[in-house]
């Protein structure tokens, strides 16, 4: 038996460089990137780079050899090669100046299909025609829940491309398709009341919804035109967008069918129109769907069951965990938060974002008909309860409605209740817009606005208040707790009386421990405990204590700043 050669087994054979992968697949770098994006293959960082690189220190991009072997059997590779042949034939026809040949070759352009289930679109190109029981990309998503878990990236990219301008580097169909698919998804969230949280930041507006039991968070740009950035490789972004368009088409179709809705979406009141009237009013119906102001029609003939309603569990009889009951109550309150309220949006507020949030929480919304198509009632409607205005003052006002700023809508959704409108009147300095994604723990610094909000929600904030930071902190930066905390909180006069010697000594009475002695004893006990920590856990313990110390310093700094602002 001969001696085993070096770098012929183990990590050296588990990875393959990008150059080797291109040679193996016979693809250029652009097509290789497209194939990896479509199939979900990404590079990996080897644990032992020198072993994988056969002793060399040259920086390379590495992939799993099994992933490249998996890509070698992909039918899309043949499509890439057919497209290269098509480009050569088209270029030859253009050089020869034969326009008939150019037209004939252009009709043979190979189409890349990212799935094997989607049929060709109809002549109008309005919607993809899906076969019965579609399954989303069996290679990447074996089950539909796997596709739902990967929905966040698709939503973020589609919402971004829906706001981009039509440029030469972006095909004109991509922004239009992204816009249509995102509107369809927002309609699904509205109809199922799946919205849970919303936060307005500098980057954009964050939304969080619960889709089939999975928490999905995505970000949408603000309502303004986005300029194209030359630093971004748009060819890679377009490949992602092209794949996610097909992905979102599958997901929207399945979600609509499970919810008992028509796909493509139809307006609820269109069923009363005749087929001829509907065909004549097709463009107007599409504009109403894009406005998000109308309810969608439900498909009574579909076999898919609608999303079941949440069961009612009496708190005293359910025997469930209190946290589960609290989450259930919050979801129910958010779903019916704006039920029975009518809103009117002024022309200066973000119309689409507010319409989406208000309707997802059960409210009715409208705007001036001169601003956008789809308004359902005028500003003079006396049944309007709230008008959203983002200007210092309102020229015309009605006494039977409240004029609030847009932040009131978002804060109400995050709080799960209708907040007092006095803090959101026109011209009033708004309270801080707190992030609903931050969870406070005991010992964290919590702003006063957050404390008041928790009190309005009926939560116990006794363990979260940090009014005065303790002055006595041990070496880890954490306030000493236990018996010494009671001594620290006592007044000085009372402690002097405790330390004063008694006039009549009682035989056998133990001496009372002073505050300083308690602190020293506590520190000594902790040092002894730290000495007994095994060596392999000592580093982790030091990291934990360092984090606690840094956190305590940050809390004291924030508290000191708040006290300085309050005093002057």
UniProtKB/TrEMBL annotation:
<dbReference type="GO" id="GO:0003723">
    <property type="term" value="F:RNA binding"/>
</dbReference>
<keyword id="KW-0698">rRNA processing</keyword>
<dbReference type="GO" id="GO:0043021">
    <property type="term" value="F:ribonucleoprotein complex binding"/>
</dbReference>
<dbReference type="InterPro" id="IPR010613">
    <property type="entry name" value="PES"/>
</dbReference>
<comment type="similarity">
    <text>Belongs to the pescadillo family.</text>
</comment>
<protein>
    <recommendedName>
        <fullName>Pescadillo homolog</fullName>
    </recommendedName>
</protein>
<dbReference type="GO" id="GO:0005654">
    <property type="term" value="C:nucleoplasm"/>
</dbReference>
<feature type="region of interest" description="Disordered">
    <location>
        <begin position="484"/>
        <end position="517"/>
    </location>
</feature>
<dbReference type="Pfam" id="PF16589">
    <property type="entry name" value="BRCT_2"/>
</dbReference>
<keyword id="KW-0690">Ribosome biogenesis</keyword>
<dbReference type="GO" id="GO:0030687">
    <property type="term" value="C:preribosome, large subunit precursor"/>
</dbReference>
<dbReference type="InterPro" id="IPR036420">
    <property type="entry name" value="BRCT_dom_sf"/>
</dbReference>
<feature type="domain" description="BRCT">
    <location>
        <begin position="333"/>
        <end position="426"/>
    </location>
</feature>
<keyword id="KW-0539">Nucleus</keyword>
<feature type="compositionally biased region" description="Low complexity">
    <location>
        <begin position="501"/>
        <end position="511"/>
    </location>
</feature>
<dbReference type="GO" id="GO:0000463">
    <property type="term" value="P:maturation of LSU-rRNA from tricistronic rRNA transcript (SSU-rRNA, 5.8S rRNA, LSU-rRNA)"/>
</dbReference>
<comment type="function">
    <text>Required for maturation of ribosomal RNAs and formation of the large ribosomal subunit.</text>
</comment>
<dbReference type="GO" id="GO:0000466">
    <property type="term" value="P:maturation of 5.8S rRNA from tricistronic rRNA transcript (SSU-rRNA, 5.8S rRNA, LSU-rRNA)"/>
</dbReference>
<dbReference type="InterPro" id="IPR001357">
    <property type="entry name" value="BRCT_dom"/>
</dbReference>
<dbReference type="Pfam" id="PF06732">
    <property type="entry name" value="Pescadillo_N"/>
</dbReference>
<dbReference type="GO" id="GO:0070545">
    <property type="term" value="C:PeBoW complex"/>
</dbReference>
């Amino acid at each position: 038996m001969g001696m085993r050669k070096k770098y012929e087994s183990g990590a050296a054979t588990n990875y393959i460089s990008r150059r080797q992968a291109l040679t193996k697949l016979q693809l250029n770098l652009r097509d290789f990137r497209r194939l990896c994006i479509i199939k979900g293959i990404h590079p990996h960082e080897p644990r032992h780079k020198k072993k994988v690189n056969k002793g060399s220190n040259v920086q390379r991009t590495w992939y799993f050899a099994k992933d490249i072997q998996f890509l070698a059997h992909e039918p899309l590779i043949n499509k890439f090669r057919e497209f290269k042949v098509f480009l050569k034939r088209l270029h030859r026809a253009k050089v020869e100046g034969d326009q008939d040949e150019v037209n004939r070759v252009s009709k043979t352009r190979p189409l890349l299909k990212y799935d094997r289930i989607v049929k060709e679109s109809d002549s109008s190109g309005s919607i993809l025609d899906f076969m019965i029981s579609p399954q989303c990309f069996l290679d990447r998503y074996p089950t539909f829940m796997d596709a739902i878990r990967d929905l966040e990236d698709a939503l973020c990219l589609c919402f971004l491309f829906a706001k981009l301008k039509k440029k030469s580097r972006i095909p004109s169909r991509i922004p239009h398709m992204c816009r249509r698919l995102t509107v369809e998804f927002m309609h699904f969230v509205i109809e199922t009341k799946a919205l849970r949280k919303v936060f307005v930041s500098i980057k954009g507006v964050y939304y969080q919804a619960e889709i089939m039991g999975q928490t999905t968070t995505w970000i949408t740009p603000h309502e303004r035109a986005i300029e194209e950035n030359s630093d971004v490789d748009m060819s890679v972004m377009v490949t992602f967008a092209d794949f996610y368009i097909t992905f979102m088409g599958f997901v929207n179709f399945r979600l609509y069918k499970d919810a008992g809705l028509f796909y493509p979406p139809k307006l609820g009141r269109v069923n009363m129109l005749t087929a001829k009237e509907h065909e004549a009013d097709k463009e107007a119906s599409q504009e109403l769907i894009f406005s998000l102001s109308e309810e969608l029609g439900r498909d009574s003939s579909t076999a898919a069951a609608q999303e079941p309603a949440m069961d009612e569990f009496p708190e005293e009889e359910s025997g469930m965990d209190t946290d589960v009951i609290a989450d259930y109550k919050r979801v129910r309150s958010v779903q019916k938060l704006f039920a029975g309220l009518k809103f009117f949006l002024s022309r200066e507020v973000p119309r689409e974002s507010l319409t989406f949030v208000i309707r997802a929480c059960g409210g009715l919304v409208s705007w001036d008909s001169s601003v956008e198509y789809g308004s359902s009632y005028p500003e003079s409607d006396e049944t309007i309860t709230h008008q959203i205005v983002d200007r210092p003052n309102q020229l015309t006002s009605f006494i039977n409605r409240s004029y609030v700023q847009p932040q009131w809508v978002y804060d109400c959704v995050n709080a799960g209740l209708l907040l007092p409108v006095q803090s959101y009147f026109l011209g009033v300095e708004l309270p801080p817009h707190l992030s609903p994604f931050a969870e406070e723990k005991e010992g964290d610094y919590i702003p006063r606005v957050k404390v008041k909000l928790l009190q309005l929600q009926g939560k116990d904030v006794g363990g979260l208040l940090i009014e005065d930071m303790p002055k006595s902190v041990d070496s880890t930066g954490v306030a000493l707790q236990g018996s010494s905390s009671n001594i620290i909180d006592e007044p000085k006069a009372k402690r002097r009386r405790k330390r004063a010697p008694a006039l009549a000594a009682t035989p056998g009475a133990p001496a009372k421990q002073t505050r300083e002695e308690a602190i020293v004893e506590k520190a000594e006990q902790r040092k002894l405990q730290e000495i007994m920590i095994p060596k392999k856990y000592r580093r982790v313990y030091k990291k934990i204590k360092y984090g606690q110390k840094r956190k305590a310093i940050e809390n004291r700094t924030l508290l000191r700043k708040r006290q300085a602002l309050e005093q002057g």
